[in-house]
Amino acid sequence: MSFLSPESVQLELAPDGTLRALLPDRCGMNVQILRAFPLSRDDQYFVLRDGKNNELGMLESTGGLSPQNVELLKDSLDNRYFLPQITKIYTIFEKFGSSQWDVETDRGRVQIASKALHEAMTELSPVRFLIRDNEDNRFEIRDVTKLDEESQKRFGGR
Fold it and tell me: Are 105 and 139 in contact (CB under 8 A)?
């Protein structure tokens, strides 16, 4: 895979709403942007692929991209990687191998139905957790120590 020079990449929206990547030697149509490391380095290493799943190259970071290109890249990633952040835990209730969560996220209050807690949670670091619900939607607690005291107590009883 080749690294792309940020200055040589021009992203634009096609008339049909899909993303195009204009590169010095080619034009990628129906471009998809993926994070090479979506959980550990979500702000670095972006893979660009065309509509036929051919890799166009990789951007190491958004540094050097024009503000318009940064906005198009971030919009594309936001659409692909929808990951609400849990900011408050009202209740966690576990019964008969499933759990019910009542939480506040950066997208609003939501009820989460998941498998048993130990099956629904993935510890990404000692303070960072990924929660997967019964429909495979994902929610993240980026830093459990930054939740309010009551939320930490509810989560600590997991």
Answer: yes
